[in-house]
Amino acid sequence: MNGDPLAVMKARLSALKPEFEWNPENANWSESARSALIEAIGVVDQPWPEPSLECGQPIEEDGYRRLRVEFPSHLGWSGRGWLLIPDGLDARVPAVVCVPGHGVGVDAIVGLVEEPYQSNFAIQSVKQGWVVLAIEQVSFGTNKSSRDADKYSSCVTDSMAALLLGETVTGWRVRDAIASVRALATHPLVDPDRTGIMGISGGGLTALWAAALEPKFLATGVSGYFCPMAHSILNVDHCPDNYVPGFGTMMDVPDLAGLVAPRWLAVENGTEDPIFEAAGFLSGCELATRIYLHHDVPERFSSDLFEGDHVFHGTALIAHFKQAFA
Questions:
Q1: Structural domains of the chain sorted by starting position, each given as residue range(s) with its CATH number in brackets
Q2: pTM
Q3: Largest distance between two CA atoms of the chain
């Protein structure tokens, strides 16, 4: 008898055939897989409020202005973050939802707090001439539960409470991301047909899942997350917000590319990333390449295995978005 529960569960997961792994021969695969995922994470299928974007006073920055924003998401909850608007706009332009990873919160991607691994990628995006909505993830920054206000995050508390409702923190975060693109569409300077989402680590999770479930995202950028579970959350300690009940019986992370295609998808990973292994990233990219070839749009998928650690690199991701928005 094996007395190691994780070893037993990993063996069971590796032996099963997930019900909704990507299947090009099943004409109903996308619809069935998307429905199963929505049910698994909860929240996303609740009725949508009327979209809006409530903005604070603008703060002038170098080449853009920054505004505090809130937008309705679901019952009793509003998403929040920063809106970055390039100077000199006189027509609608593309927009990008930027989602930070685990850390101090959204301030770390708009230059207000130093957190090097995030590389201020919201500022990198607004410098391209795109409107940017940098959103605060549930359980971080100004969205921490008050009981854990003095902690790094409230991920554990919130993840466990969500399960009691039959929901997940993944669902809450994806709901906010989808609500944000609905809110952006109400802004007079945003082209609603050219909107993307980009994130790193836990923000990459939110970006990939949101794009898989919401077709309004034309382009998706994922840094440091596009990796099978055997090479990530089942191999190294990860926060409980990475776990969705039953997900392992449905599919693996790279299968989500099948729900993004044929829209644009760019993924990147560091060669020395200790929590999302390079070998897993490469195997995920092999599947995504097959998916995009199946759709006859191989140019809409790109991957970059860069020399480095768990960090937002961004060069290939931003170049890919430029192609998508052209």
A1: 37-325 (3.40.50.1820)
A2: 0.97
A3: 69
